[in-house]
Amino acid sequence: MSHATPHRLLYFFVAFVLLMFFGLIYAWSLFVDPLEAEFGWDRSATSVVFTLSIITFCAGMLVAGALEERTSPRTVMLITATCLGLGLIASAFTESLPFIYATYGVLVGAGVGLGTDVVMSVTLKWFPDKQGLASGAMLMGFGGGTMLLSPVVTTMLGALGWRLTFGALGVIFVVLVGAGAFIMKLPTPEYVRPLLEKARQNATVAAVDMTGGQMVRTPTFWVFMVYLMLVTCGGLALISQAVPAAMELLMGAGAAASGAASAGAGASGAAAAGAGVSAALPEAEALMLATAAMGSVSAMNGLGRLINGFIWDKFGYRVCLTWIAVAFAAGMLCCAFAMMGSNFPLLVAGFMLLGLMYGGNMCSMSAMVGTFFGPKYYGINYAIATCQMIPAAIVGPQILALSQMGSGSYLGAFWVFFGVAIAALIVSLFIKPPKNNRAA
C-alpha cells in the first residue's frame, strides 16, 4: 500500500491548486470598478453578478454530485473547463448587464460549483482516514485563493485591461482544469478498503454510506443545517461589511477623539491614541487600515479551515462545533467592545476570530458529510449541505442591514450576531451522528 501514497499526495496537490483558482470567484469585486467606469452601471446592478454566481455555484455543486454518479469525474471536470472557459472568454465581449449576468454570473458560477464539488469528492475518497484534515487543507486553498491570486489579477487588469484579463483567465482555466481532468482519478477499492476499515474502527467515519435521500431524512442532517446556517449567516454578513465597520470606528473615533481634545479631555484623547486611533485620521489612511483589517479576515479564514480539520480528526466533531461557536461569540464581543471604546486593535482581533470561525465552519460542513454519512456519496451529499449558504446569504445581510439602519451604527449588529452565536452554541449541543449510522 505504501507505493500508492505518493499518488495520494499528488492528487491532493492538484486539488489544492485547482481550488485556489476556483476561489477566484470571490475576486469579482476586482472587475467592478473597470466595468462601472466604462458602462456607467451602478453598484446595485453589478452586485447582482456576484449574487448570481453564488446561487449558480450551489446549483453547479448539486449537478456535479448527480453527474459524478452517472458519468465520471473526468467528464465532470471537462464540463467544468468548458463552462469556465466559455464564461470568462465570453465575458471579455461584454456590452450589457444581461450579457455579463449570463456569462460570469451563470456560466462561471456554475463552472466553479461543478469543479469544486468533483475535486473535493475525488480527493477525499483518497483520504477516508483523514476526512477533517484533508477537507480543511483543501478548503484553505479555496479560501486563500482570492488573497494569493488577487494581486496577480490586479496586475493583469492594469497591464491588459479588463477584456483581455477575462480572456486570459479563460484560457488559463481551460488549461489547468483540462489537465486536472486527465491527472485525477478515483482510488481503487483495494487501496481504500484498509484505510476505510481503520477509520470506521476509530469511529472517524460513518459505519455505512448514506445516499442524499437517506441523509436528508435524518434529524442529524437538519439540526446540523440549522447550526451551519446560523454561523454562516453571521460570517457572510459581517465579512461583507468588514471595511465599512472598520471605517465607522476609525472615522467616528477620530472625530470623537478630536472633540474630546478640544474639550480639554486630555486623558480620553490619550486613551484613544493608545488604542491605535488617530485624533485626525485622514480618510485615505483610514481606508488603508480598514482594508488591512479585512485582509486579516481572509488570512484567518484560510487558517481556520486547516486548524479545524486537524481538530476534527484529533478531538472529534463536538470540540470543533463548540470552538467555532465560542470563537463566533468572542469575536462579536471584541467587535462590540471595540466600537464602544474606539479600540481599533480590538476590532481587528474580533475580525480575526470571525475569520477563524467562518473558515472552521466551512471545513466542518465538509468533514461532517464524510464522517456522519460516509465517503461514497460525498459529491451529492456535500452539494446538498452547501445549499445552506443560500438562505444564510439572504438572511444574514438582511439582519445586518436592518440593525445598522435602525441604529445608524454597526454596534447594534455586533450584539445581534452575538445572540446568533449563542444560539449556534446551543444548537451544537443537539448534534450527534445518526442513530443507525454510528461507527462500531
How does this structure look, described?
With 440 residues, this protein is an all-alpha fold. It contains 18 helices and no strands. The chain is globular and about 65 Å long. The N terminus is likely disordered. GO terms for molecular function: transmembrane transporter activity. It comes from Adlercreutzia rubneri. It is a multi-pass membrane protein.
**First-residue to last-residue Cα separation:** 24 Å
**Overall pLDDT:** 82
Strand content: under 5%
Shape: globular
What's the level 1 CATH class of the largest domain? Answer: Mainly Alpha
What's the β-strand tally? 0
Q: What can be said about the biggest beta sheet?
A: none
The share of residues in helices is over 70%
Broad structural category: mainly alpha
What would you report as the Rg, rounded to the nearest angstrom?
23 Å
CATH architecture identity of the largest domain: Up-down Bundle
**CATH fold descriptor of the largest domain:** Growth Hormone, Chain: A
The low-confidence parts are: 1-5, 254-280
* SSE string, helices as H and strands as E: HHHHHHHHHHHHHHHHHH
Number of domains: 2
Number of helices: 18
CATH homology-level superfamily of the largest domain = MFS general substrate transporter like domains
Question: What are the salient characteristics of this protein?
Answer:
Growth Hormone, Chain: A; globular; 440 residues
In short:
The chain has 440 residues and is mainly alpha-helical.
Task: Give the secondary structure arrangement, pairings included.
Elements: H1 5-22, H2 29-39, H3 43-70, H4 73-91, H5 97-125, H6 131-160, H7 162-183, H8 189-201, H9 212-216, H10 219-240, H11 242-262, H12 266-274, H13 283-315, H14 317-341, H15 344-373, H16 378-386, H17 389-407, H18 411-428
Helix pairs in contact: 1-5, 1-6, 1-7, 2-3, 3-5, 3-16, 4-5, 4-7, 5-16, 6-7, 6-13, 6-15, 10-15, 10-17, 10-18, 11-12, 11-13, 11-15, 13-14, 13-15, 14-15, 14-18, 15-16, 17-18
